[in-house]
Design brief:
alpha/beta
Length: about 130
Amino acid sequence: MKIYVTSVYVDDQNKALDFYTTKLGFIKKHDIPVDGDNRWLTLVSPDAPDGVQLLLEPSGHPATKPFKDALVADGIPLTSFQVDDIDAQYERLVGLGVVFTLPPTDAGPVKMAVLDDTCGNLIQIVQMVAQQ
């Protein structure tokens, strides 16, 4: 068994597509109309085009907004993405106007930062660091 797809609940799929592709650098894998304005809209890492897909899931279910709001209020990221050089990614993303709620911070075996995806979520980026 392996992970095929994972979801991020987004307030606006078009806005999320723009943010996750132009800012974070993911690439669109599938964009299939489902019902109304909703789509099966998935992204992948350019380093793994056949790897795990990130579904930009519409936040239409009534439980989604309270769930997302509670996570944001408590400063808890919805998901986490790995990067090779967190300081370089932080500088690049800040330069693109991305807002961080936590700058790069040492946290044991990882260095992490938390950003606002503009679609109702906090997203963590992490860099694995060598053990001393």
